[in-house]
Design a protein that fits this description.
This protein is mainly alpha-helical and about 425 residues long. The protein has 14 helices and two strands.
Amino acid sequence: MLVVTSAPSKTITEDLRTSLMNSLLEKTPKTLKVLFVDPSRAAAANEAFKSDFQSPSAVQRYQDDYVGSQVSTVSAALKKILSPQPDFSESSPRSQTALSHIRAALLTCQATLHRARNEMENVAVDVCALKARVEEAKVRAQGEVLGPSSSSAEGDAVIDALNLAAKEVKVVMDRLTWWRMIWRVDEISHVLTQAVLQPGCRTLEQQLVLQAGRLSALQHDITKSTFALLEAHPTPPFNSALLQNSLQQLVASPSFHITPHTLTHPINTRRGQVIEHPTTRLHVAAQRATLGMGGSIAAGAGLSWAGWIGWLAGSGEGLLGAIGLDAGTAVGVGLLTAVGGVRWAVGKWERAKRRWWEDWDRVGSGLGRDLRSTLDQTMQDKVLVVAQIGCNKLSDLIEQRRSEIEEVEEELGTLKTTLESLEHPSK
């Protein structure tokens, strides 16, 4: 659009427009419009209207001069150029401007999605590293807490401690021979209880107390790393206040802390079982063996006395003469009865001791299982609970974030395809 300011007549205006169009035809688009306006006449119209706007003649003069200045043709031409066209045109300025804005908006969305994906991947890498550390701690705990002791390169701490305790208890048990058992029959439970509770049997318990302190330090370190991971990624949705609050409540709970006796509870339970059941049965067996042996000896002595009482009284035959037993035979039967009772008591005592050792072995194998179960439960519910819950919650957030990003990327790809079709309709 070319605007020429002049005040020529209508004939001169048409001739001048034709001349300008012919001279500028090669350098300007065919849609060039040439407009002639008279700004001075338009200004005069305004002055006439302002001088006396209530006078009909002034209003008529304003109308004539304003229409004659042709200023309105410029407004009409601009309105026509800037008004939306019924058919979309990619070459129009409005269309190009709109497409440029859409392209910039899509690029901004793409950059935002790229930053969101990078943040998500960084969180995923940190979560994987923390999970690997948790799994490593689980494996190392079994080897360090219940692994080989310092005095043995093979086996594990439970077997070594049980073997050491068995050696010390065996010394006490070997001293309880059948003839000593008779004189200490009422002290069997007390003697074996003291043997089970002696310091040598507490080696494993002392080691577990030490390992409980190490697990407490490991718990503090891993918990600190979990909260550091959350603080390292302050962008939503990974800076979940709800997740941090739940983890802090978990740390503040009384069941979270590890005490020196956290791992030793199975030892006390199994030790109580040994004292309460096998030792009590051994004590009862000793009492029964003593009573049975005493009864057999008394019966044998009675038979021998009954066989010799007649000779001692001078009657010539004993009390058992009526059944055909002379004095010598009666003495022999009495001695055999006494010896049989002693042999029975010795066998019963030895069998009771073997059963006691069998119960000891069963309790020892159960102790190993209990300690491993307690260790696993301690690692699961105390040492690693904060890290595991944090990793699981963050993994859920990562999957949710990934699905959201993929959905937005799919929509963004559709918008890019539509934009390309608008920019290049021929393709």
